[in-house]
Design a protein that fits this description.
- Helices cover 69% and strands 0% of the residues.
- Helix 1 runs antiparallel to helix 3.
- The longest helix has 36 residues.
- 6% of the residues are buried.
């Protein structure tokens, strides 16, 4: 039993390290707009919104990766339960908690996107895009 858990933990950690290798290129664009780097004198409120949108995109992407790892972990717990009801319940609990977490994350992202789009016109929702003070509208 201890060997199985230690193997699962090792697989989980190695997968997390492999996935984190892809985070660097995602940050290559940079969260800070070019006109704000070095000094804050040239920044405006739209640049702040741009930083928040990029950060929300990054966090959403990372949460999806973490959710995938948690699905794998919960599935492996369930798979290696060998009929033990407590371990089956533990695996099922991890999977259910992951689904609930994803629902909360995506609802929060949607609400933030709609709010930012309505205020500043910087939204991935086409109906809200290209309006607001950041686009001269």
């Amino acid at each position: 039993m201890k060997k199985t858990k230690s193997k699962l933990l090792l697989i989980f950690v190695l997968t997390a390290l492999a996935v984190s290798a892809f985070v660097g290129p995602a940050l290559a664009d940079g969260l800070i707009p070019e006109n704000c780097s070095g000094t804050a004198e040239n920044c405006n409120p739209c640049d702040i919104i741009t930083v928040l949108v990029k950060a929300a995109d990054l966090i959403t992407g990372l949460s999806g990766t973490i959710a995938l790892l948690m699905f794998i972990y919960g599935g492996l717990l369930w798979l290696t339960a060998y009929g033990k009801e407590s371990q089956i319940q533990s695996g099922r609990g991890v999977i259910i908690a992951t689904v609930i977490g994803l629902v909360i994350i995506f609802l929060a992202y949607t609400l933030i996107s709609v709010a930012i789009g309505a205020i500043y016109g910087n939204s991935s929702i086409p109906a809200l895009n290209q309006t607001g003070p950041c686009f001269g509208g």
